[in-house]
C-alpha cells in the first residue's frame, strides 16, 4: 500500500476546483483488504514496554527546552539531568535538526552519552527521541542508522513535513532494525485547523497508522495547543485499535 498514492487519488486535485469555495475531508473508510497492504506501526505499544521493561503506568517524558540555541554538550547535559531525575524519556522538538550551533551528529553523540550514564546510575532503561527528519530520504536514513549504531532505542520523524513516502521508508527501516519510531505532527494545523476546509486530523491519524509509527502526537485536552477532549480521545482510540471493523 502507498499512503502517497492514496492521498494523490482522493485529495490530489479536487480541492483546487473553481466550483468549490471550501471543502473538508472529515474521514476515510479503509477496507480491511486494503489496510492489510500497509506496514502499520514498526513495533507497537507492547514491544515498546517490553524494551523499556516498564508496565502498568504511563511513560513520563519531556521535550528539552529551549528547543533551539543550546550547544550539543549543553543539550546532552539537559537530557542527562532529566533522565537522572526520574523521567523515562526525553525528546528533540520538531525543529531540532542540524543547525550551526548544534549539528545532528554531535547531538546524537552527547545524547547517547547521557542515556548510558543515566541508565547505569538508575538501573532503568531510558530513551531519547532523536529527530532523524532531514532534507532527503537518504540523509534521514543515514541519521537513523547512526542512532542505531550508537545503541539508541528510538528515533523521531516529522511525518507531515517529511512526507508520507519518507515516513514509510523510515518505518520499514525501524521495523527491520529494532528501532522504535516516534512521530511528530508538525504542520498538521495548516491542514486540519479550519472547520470548513482541509482535512480532519482523524484522516491524518489514519494515514500515519498506515504509513507507520509507534506513537504520534495526537493532541492534548490541556496546555497551549487547540484540542477538544472528546475529539482528542477519539484519536487516541483510533490509533490504538487492533483491527478495522467491517461495514
From TrEMBL:
Its cofactor is Mg(2+). InterPro entries: RuBisCO, RuBisCo_large_chain_AS, RuBisCO_lsu_C, RuBisCO_lsu_C_sf, RuBisCO_lsu_fd_N, RuBisCO_lsu_N_sf. Keywords: Calvin cycle, Carbon dioxide fixation, Chloroplast, Lyase, Magnesium, Metal-binding, Monooxygenase, Oxidoreductase, Photorespiration, Photosynthesis, Plastid. Residues 1-34 form the Ribulose bisphosphate carboxylase large subunit ferrodoxin-like N-terminal domain. It is found in: Plastid, Chloroplast. One of its GO terms (biological process) is reductive pentose-phosphate cycle. The keyword Lyase applies. It is an enzyme of class 4 (lyase). Residues 44-247 form the Ribulose bisphosphate carboxylase large subunit C-terminal domain. GO terms for molecular function: magnesium ion binding; monooxygenase activity; ribulose-bisphosphate carboxylase activity. Pfam families: RuBisCO_large, RuBisCO_large_N. It catalyses: D-ribulose 1,5-bisphosphate + O2 = 2-phosphoglycolate + (2R)-3-phosphoglycerate + 2 H(+); 2 (2R)-3-phosphoglycerate + 2 H(+) = D-ribulose 1,5-bisphosphate + CO2 + H2O. GO terms for cellular component: chloroplast. RuBisCO catalyzes two reactions: the carboxylation of D-ribulose 1,5-bisphosphate, the primary event in carbon dioxide fixation, as well as the oxidative fragmentation of the pentose substrate in the photorespiration process. Both reactions occur simultaneously and in competition at the same active site. Heterohexadecamer of 8 large chains and 8 small chains; disulfide-linked. The disulfide link is formed within the large subunit homodimers. This is Ribulose bisphosphate carboxylase large chain. It comes from Microsorum insigne. The gene is rbcL.
Amino acid at each position: 500500500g502507498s499512503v502517497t498514492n492514496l492521498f494523490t487519488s482522493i485529495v490530489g486535485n479536487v480541492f483546487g476546483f473553481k466550483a468549490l469555495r471550501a471543502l473538508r475531508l472529515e474521514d476515510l473508510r479503509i477496507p480491511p483488504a486494503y489496510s492489510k497492504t500497509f506496514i502499520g506501526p514498526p513495533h507497537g505499544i507492547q514491544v515498546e514496554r517490553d524494551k523499556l521493561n516498564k508496565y502498568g503506568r504511563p511513560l513520563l517524558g519531556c521535550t528539552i527546552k529551549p528547543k533551539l540555541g543550546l550547544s550539543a554538550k549543553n543539550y546532552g547535559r539537559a537530557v542527562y539531568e532529566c533522565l537522572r531525575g526520574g523521567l523515562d524519556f526525553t525528546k528533540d522538538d520538531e525543529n531540532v535538526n542540524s543547525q550551526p550551533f548544534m549539528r545532528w551528529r554531535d547531538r546524537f553523540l552527547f545524547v547517547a552519552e547521557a542515556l548510558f550514564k543515566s541508565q547505569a546510575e538508575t538501573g532503568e532503561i531510558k530513551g531519547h527521541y532523536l529527530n532523524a527528519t532531514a532534507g532527503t530520504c537518504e540523509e534521514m536514513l543515514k541519521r537513523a542508522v547512526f542512532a542505531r549504531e550508537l545503541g539508541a532505542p528510538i528515533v523521531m520523524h516529522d511525518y507531515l513535513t517529511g512526507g508520507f513516502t519518507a515516513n514509510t521508508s523510515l518505518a520499514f527501516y525501524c521495523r527491520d532494525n529494532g528501532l522504535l519510531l516516534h512521530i511528530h505532527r508538525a504542520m498538521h494545523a495548516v491542514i486540519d485547523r479550519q472547520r470548513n476546509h482541509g482535512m480532519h486530523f482523524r484522516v491524518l491519524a489514519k494515514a500515519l497508522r498506515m504509513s507507520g509509527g509507534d506513537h504520534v502526537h495526537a493532541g492534548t485536552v490541556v496546555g497551549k495547543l487547540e484540542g477538544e477532549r472528546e475529539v482528542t480521545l477519539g484519536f487516541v482510540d483510533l490509533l490504538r485499535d487492533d483491527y478495522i471493523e467491517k461495514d
